[in-house]
Amino acid sequence: MSDRVETLEFQAEARQLLQLMVHSIYSNKDVFLRELISNASDALDKLRLESLVDKDLPADTSDLHIGIEVDKDARTLTVRDNGIGMTRDEVVGLIGTIAKSGTAEVLRKLRESSDAAASQELIGQFGVGFYATFMVADRVTLLTRRAGQSGGTRWESAGEGTYSIEEVGDAPQGTAVTLHLKPADTDDNLHDYTAEWTIREIVKRYSDFISWPIRMTVDKPGEDGATTREEQTLNSMKALWARSRDEVDEAEYKEFYRHVAHDWADPLETIHMRGEGTFEYEALLFLPSHAPLDLFSPQGRRGVQLYVKRVFIMDDCDALMPNYLRFVKGVVDAHDLSLNISREILQQDRQIHAVRRRLVKKVLATLKDMSAESYRTFWTEFGAVVKEGLLEDPDNTETLLELVRAASTHDPAEPTTLRAYVERMRDGQTEIYYATGENRATIENSPHLEAFRAKGYEVLILTDPVDEVWVERVGAYDGRTLRSVAKGQVDLETEEEKEKAEAERQEYADLLTFLGGALADSVKEVRLSTRLTTSPACVVGDAHDMTPTLEKMYRAMGQEVPRVKRILELNPAHPLVTGLRKAHGEGGDTAALTETAELLYGMALLAEGGELADPARFTRILADRLARGL
């Protein structure tokens, strides 16, 4: 038996939202099912809480669950729960009227957004996700009965500005929402929501970790060819992050990691944490054991999955994890966010920033506490990315410097920490010396290292492109300046050696002046070197000049930078250099001396792995000299 049917108008903002949903252009219409399941889950949570508070509540809580029912002939989809339910006034208040503050702002953003993906993320942000049903349905019917009450309410609308409502006497406890589905339209991304596999995929993607069972009756073929009907639970309900660590075994962590990371290998490390206080959240994060193929791709996946009260909100939530930790996989479940909160709002949310800071500190602390073997694997795979943090995250610079591992001349195989380098520094040494280059072999054979090797100074060998930048940006570690062996003047000499070098500078003054003029187009200065012991010459930069490798990196990114002239340093003890001084002092052929200067400069460039400006000319001059020497 039912009372008279009333037809009411939606409140103005609700009508506007309905029009957006009915005429939706949003590409991801699947979110309607997430919204209905989320509402059902909330209703079950509320009933469980109310039954605990009111022991005398006449409600059945023996089998709380969410049901999905499909009628392919009638093309209907029903999402049903046996939760708290609603009264007639609650139906009108919650569905017919949008009384939440900020709804007008949501509508404005939805109308103005040119990004369909970003727009659909706003759906339901202020508790209006129910309206997403009109993206896929021509008509929606809701039947509900408040737990503990005898009468129910039926609500129905075609999304055209009005709805009908009536009281009914035979409604079961809870809420059932029935969608009279639009025809499937692949061009409009409107799927067939009566198809079992479609529903399974949506539930798995968005609602797998809802804590209540989501059940659906499906066809099951028998051995004799007959088909039987069987009720199955579609979601795993394994919200591992909401359980304490001692309740989860390692196999469950590994299985969950493979699910969220789409990885075939086991994780290197698992981080399970809970944040309490003004903003509650749970996080289950993983450090992979190998780098993904898109680690350095601008289009690669970034960030972790975001859930709100166990409801999936978005993949790749980069607001929760900085770019230099983009390899971290896992889930963050926030308790106090709205469903479908947009990326834009996340980026500006102060609570999200606070969670991000805690997550970063926890990840870095976990890295610091890893075993030597595990960390060696991690650094091999992700070290180059972690060093990007030295450019992006000034708040954690000190921590990141402690995590850095670098090859060095101290050990041919084992990398060193900066702390260990400092502990091995020689008496009187105040700077940490490093060399950058494409690979270890090139650096170790570079003339820049000769004096350091001869005098027993350790040099860090840095071969990642980011090394060119972070050492300049950071500048120092533990009060010791980071100093390139290929830039500026090198002061490794004793007082006696300095006196000898000063006398040599007087002897070579005329030759240095001549060479500076002859090579003026290529170098800014020619001077004697204190860093060479066996090579005749090397090319170095001024203390604050950009390195050639960094120049090349900027140009590869499309940024034009002025060409930086470098300094040619000569080894006054090398026979080629002493012979050149003698020839110049005796008034030798200027053209021949100039060609020798070009060869000397070219050899210095090649020795450090550089590129000749005119390889053909260098080869011709060298061939002529070799021919005359035969």
Features of the shown structure:
single chain, 630 residues, alpha+beta, Heat Shock Protein 90, Ribosomal Protein S5, domain 2, Rossmann fold, 4 domains, 9-stranded mixed β-sheet, 6-stranded mixed β-sheet, 22 helices, 38% helix, elongated, Ribosomal_Su5_D2-typ_SF, chaperone, HSP90_C
Notes on the protein architecture:
- Its main location: cytoplasm.
- Residues 553-630 are annotated as: C.
- Belongs to the heat shock protein 90 family.
- The structure is a single chain.
- By secondary structure, the protein is α+β, with helices and mostly antiparallel strands.
- The chain has four domains: 14-221 and 228-233, Heat Shock Protein 90 (2-Layer Sandwich), CATH 3.30.565; 240-383, Ribosomal Protein S5, domain 2 (2-Layer Sandwich); 404-484, Rossmann fold; 497-629, Up-down Bundle (Four Helix Bundle (Hemerythrin (Met), subunit A)), CATH 1.20.120.790.
- It is built from 22 helices and 23 strands.
- A nine-stranded mixed β-sheet has the order 1-6-5-4-7-3-2-8-9, with helices on one face. The chain has a six-stranded mixed β-sheet with strand order 16-15-18-17-20-19. Strands 10-11-14-12-13 form a five-stranded mixed β-sheet.
- Strand 8 (214-221) and strand 9 form a beta hairpin.
- The relative contact order is 0.07.
